[in-house]
Write a structure and sequence with these properties.
The complex is a heterodimer.
Chain A lengths: L1 H24 L8 E7 L2 H17 L4 E7 L1 H13 L6 E4 L1 H9 L21 H5 L2 E2 L2 E2 L2 E6 L1 E5 L1 H7 L10 H13 L16 H10 L15 H16 L6 H4 L18 E5 L3 H7 L5 E3 L15 E8 L6 H13 L1 H7 L9 H7 L5 H13 L14 H16 L5 H17 L2
Parallel strand pairs in A: 1-2, 1-3
Antiparallel strand pairs in A: 3-10, 4-5, 6-10, 7-8, 7-9
Helix pairs in contact in A: 2-13, 9-17, 12-13, 16-17
Chain B lengths: L5 H11 L5 H8 L1 H28 L2 E2 L7 E2 L3 H8 L2 H32 L6 H14 L3 H11 L4 H10 L13 H11 L2 H13 L2 H9 L4 H29 L3 H6 L13 H11 L3 H29 L5
Antiparallel strand pairs in B: 1-2
Helix pairs in contact in B: 1-2, 3-15, 5-9, 5-10, 5-12, 5-14, 6-10, 10-12, 12-15, 14-15
Classes of the chains: A alpha+beta, B mainly alpha.
């Protein structure tokens, strides 16, 4: 008998726990006591984010924020499965490319009503606020501003006895110097630059310098086969001249900080997003410098634009949209939070925050802030929202550039192939 | 059955009564068995059969995880068959991998097993050591190791340069060779077929060899006339298991190319392509269709193996 009782007690306790979990997990409570935050990034970012969460906990002791992070490529499957399983995290770190898909499919909560109240982001300036807008509604708050950029090891260029990359330099000059570098290389198997022919932001910058774009306003391609062919040809010439790394070295680059030819000690120059400067410097022994892209001609536009390096969104159906908005505000508009995050996610969009943060930064972060200030006068507008299949285009570009680099196609054929495949990809659902 | 509880006997009698219908009767008689099977049955219906049927349904839809599935009929299958160059590339990579890695791995495993079978000192230790690579599986550490070995300035090229003065390419990132580095990785993990071969070799009666030796058969002849024929059931078992595993191989390519299948799709395993479609581009419907095609291919291969088995596998004990 006593055994039966015990068993019953266990069962009912279990049921109670289960029902509690169900109630707690569902949207039954008006005010959530717990928010989940999901982001992508390196360990450095995780440390900063967790520190910010801990600091916020002091200000708001009755609110729990549970953080969770993943690498870029694992992040999107995880987010998509959680959203599909009606288990979306309350706070979602969002990318400019994906925000359109998530917002248009009704996965994000519009935040317009909190602007000026929980979200004091008025001094972001219109472009920085609008970078989180989809179809007129605000779905993401800018966590930092960045732009495409060139990182280089100035000492290595000096050692080779050629002029290092600098702002306003032409592609022609850059290629000539890089070839010169290749002749006086400081060590064997070391090259002036990584091969950026398969790097999407580099191709985009080059197109924008010629007043073209990756994607047009109406969701088509913003360039033709000849443009792409010229781009591949420019890099093919550099490859031939020993100016950039050979195909089999470049193929090791998985488009992240760790596998880039600069980090692996094969090249003195890399092409990346400016906010990654902190991350690159963290894993490179040599002191790195940052500058803007080489230019097609003296009077061409710089091709740069200020991009939200990432945004923070709130899931639709979250039990605590307002609490989430308050936390976002802590990250982007309260000195304590802004100081903890620093510029690792990009330069703060808020002018007052940027000004109060700048004097506290170390040299690496400062160089990046200065870089953004330097390119800002010459930047163009944000590109139009990418078409649905745009995510796959980066893969197509990388593969086609490899086909050219390994000599399986001429640059001209590569250009034609790229356009044909890109057209199929962006139309596919 | 030697042992039967009273309850079971009583139930057996009840079940034997003519009134009840067929299914009901079988269920009643086996009630306890089903209760014991319940955990497995729940797992099978809930976690295997259910999702499998769901994926069959999804393969006829477009489904991006965020919006509900959209019925498109057979168009996913049509696209795979007619307008998907990546499908063809993935097929080529996968078949190259299966057809090379399975025989090589089995031959290697058999050779090592035969070496161990001579009854050497410290066999347990060696067996464990040789099994170790299989335990490591495909971890990130293995990916790093493989890159160090097969990169342009890796160990392999260092050895080639020292021994033959040959300056090798970066094997792992060259589309002409990268798949072979993955084949080598698979062959290196020969542990489990080796253990099974070793058990199989122990089963072969020693007196057969003694008799053959007396009749003047050499070592080679003994191997081809005794060892190999008597080992065919074990070879068959290993071949089937390894083939299915090779078709399903995913992690080696995923970690070495970091999910890209590159360079130029040269390591785009079928499962990796499936994963890209599903979790890279959120085309769950298309990925489900790809998955079902893989199921059909593996089934055909296995069926073919079993049909061919009657001509070369000897079960004569």
């Amino acid at each position: 008998m006593s055994v039966m009782l015990k068993r019953r007690a266990v069962v009912s306790a279990g049921l109670a726990a289960m029902s509690l979990a169900v109630v707690g997990g569902g949207p039954a409570f008006a005010q959530a006591a717990r928010l989940r935050l999901l982001w992508w990034g390196s360990q450095e970012r995780a440390d900063r984010t967790n520190k910010a969460i801990a600091a916020y906990k002091k200000a708001k002791p009755d609110l729990d924020i549970a953080g969770e992070f993943a690498g870029w490529s694992d992040y999107w499957p995880r987010l998509a499965t959680q959203v599909a399983g009606r288990n979306a995290p309350d706070l979602i770190q969002m990318d400019y490319r994906y925000i359109f898909e998530y917002a248009r499919r009704g996965a994000l909560a519009p935040l317009d009503e909190y602007v000026g109240k929980a979200l004091k982001i008025e001094d972001f300036g219109t472009p920085n606020i609008d970078s989180g807008r989809v179809d007129g509604k605000l779905y993401g708050i800018n966590l930092g501003v960045n732009s495409s950029s060139v990182f280089f090891d100035a000492a290595a260029w000096e050692k080779a006895g050629v002029k290092a990359p600098s702002a306003g330099q032409s592609w022609e000059e850059f290629a000539k110097n890089a070839a010169e570098f290749g002749k006086n290389k400081p060590k064997p198997g070391y090259y002036a630059t990584a091969d950026a022919s398969g790097v999407e932001p580099s191709f985009e910058n080059w197109l924008r310098q010629q007043n073209k774009a990756l994607f047009s306003e109406d969701g088509g391609l913003g360039y033709d086969a000849k443009d792409a062919g010229d781009w591949f040809a420019m890099w093919a010439d550099m490859r031939k001249a020993g100016a950039c790394v050979p195909a089999d070295i470049q193929a090791l680059d998985q488009l992240n900080i760790e596998s880039n030819a600069l980090t692996t000690g094969k090249a003195a120059t890399a092409f990346a997003h400016s906010n990654q400067f902190v991350g690159y410097q963290a894993v490179n022994k040599a002191k790195l410098s940052i500058t803007s892209y080489p230019k097609v001609s003296k009077d061409s536009p710089s091709g740069h634009y200020l991009k939200p390096s990432m945004l923070m969104s709130v899931a639709k159906g979250s039990a605590g949209v307002e609490a989430a908005a308050e936390f976002i505000n802590f990250l982007v508009a309260v000195p304590e939070g802004v100081d903890i995050l620093g510029v690792e996610r990009g330069v703060p969009a808020s002018e007052s925050m940027r000004n109060q943060l700048s004097p506290k930064l170390n040299d690496v972060s400062k160089a990046m802030v200065d870089y953004i200030a330097e390119v800002t006068p010459g930047v163009g507008p944000l590109p139009p929202s990418p078409p649905p299949g745009a995510g796959e285009f980066a893969f197509v570009l990388k593969r086609t550039s490899e086909e050219v680099a390994f000599g399986r196609m001429t640059p001209e054929e590569g250009g034609k192939r790229l356009v044909t495949e890109a057209e199929t990809v962006i139309k596919r659902k | 059955m030697a042992f039967r509880s009273d309850v079971m006997v009583r139930e057996g009698r009840q079940a034997a009564l003519p009134k009840q219908s067929g299914i009901r009767k079988i269920f009643d008689r086996n009630f306890h068995a089903y209760m014991f099977l319940l955990p497995w049955l729940i797992g099978f219906f809930g976690l295997t059969l259910g999702p499998a049927l769901a994926s069959l349904y999804l393969s006829f839809t477009n489904y991006d995880l965020l919006q509900s599935p959209d019925w498109v009929g057979a168009s996913n299958y049509v696209r795979i068959a007619t307008a998907d160059p990546k499908f063809a590339a993935a097929m080529k990579v996968t078949f190259t991998y299966v057809l090379l890695s399975v025989p090589l791995k089995l031959i290697f495993a058999l050779m090592v097993a035969m070496a161990f079978n001579r009854g050497m000192q410290g066999l347990t230790l060696y067996r464990a050591v040789f099994y170790l690579p299989s335990l490591l599986g495909s971890s990130v550490a293995i990916a790093v190791l493989w890159r160090q070995l097969f990169a342009s300035d890796g160990l392999v090229n260092m050895v080639l340069w020292q021994l033959f003065g040959y300056e090798g390419p970066s094997w792992i990132s060259n589309p002409d060779y990268s798949i072979y580095t993955l084949v080598i990785l698979s062959v290196w993990q020969f542990g489990s077929p080796m253990i099974i071969f070793l058990a199989g070799l122990r089963q072969i009666p020693q007196d057969m060899y003694e008799a053959a030796e007396m009749d003047g058969a050499g070592k080679m002849r003994q191997f081809f006339r005794i060892t190999l024929p008597l080992l065919t059931p074990v070879i068959f078992f290993n071949a089937v298991i390894q083939t299915i595993d090779a078709f399903k191989a995913f992690t080696p390519a995923f970690i070495i190319s970091e999910g890209s299948g590159g360079p130029i799709n040269s390591t785009l395993f079928y499962t990796l392509y499936l994963y890209q479609e599903a979790f890279g581009f959120f085309r769950m419907g298309y990925a489900s269709a790809l998955a079902w095609i893989l199921v059909v291919i593996i089934s055909l291969f296995t069926a073919f193996s079993f049909l061919s088995a009657r001509y070369w596998v000897h079960y004569d004990d």
